[in-house]
Amino acid sequence: MEVIVADNGSTDATARIALARGCRVVAVAKRVIGAARNAGAAVARGDILAFVDADAQIHADTFNEIDRVLADATVIGGATSIRFERQSAGLKCTYILLVVAGVLLRGARGVRDLNVDTGVVFCGRGDFKAVGGYREDRLFAEDVQFLLDLQRLGRRRGRRITRGTNAKTIFSTRKFDRYGDWHYFTMPPRLIWGMLRGRPELARGYWYEGR
Question: What pTM, to 2 d.p., does this model score?
């Protein structure tokens, strides 16, 4: 197993600390999350790829769970699911909102097995290449798009994506600490509306310009 840090223009000690801990570090100049994920995958040597945000905390049993899940020949990949690092009324309602959004998306697409999730996202190297990796033209939601692409590939091959393993990732609440525990009820529509109008400034400010 190897740990790769895609250093997407950090201005702190990220690269130095990662190298000192024995990680492989790849510098990524393009400030797009999908580009960072793809650059990490490009230098990886393993047959199974797993992606996680730098501010997340992975479960100690994560890789055993990924091995167990992918041992099923009908599974093409998936995600571990998450739990927030702290709880509040706003965060609980946000989680419910995300679940409802997933149900609506499933209904809109007419797909029963739409198991798009988040946390540690994983799949085989060959399948990652087959879907073309992460979209680098998206400032956000590249992980959702990747799993949708992976699911379409799996459907053609008689395989499926899966969600909710027994090793949930701890999701950082730093954005909620900064913008408020209820901001998901107003921020995503503003981000999407800005992108539709050809004004990505808000999205860049939210995902790329903070600490």
Answer: 0.87
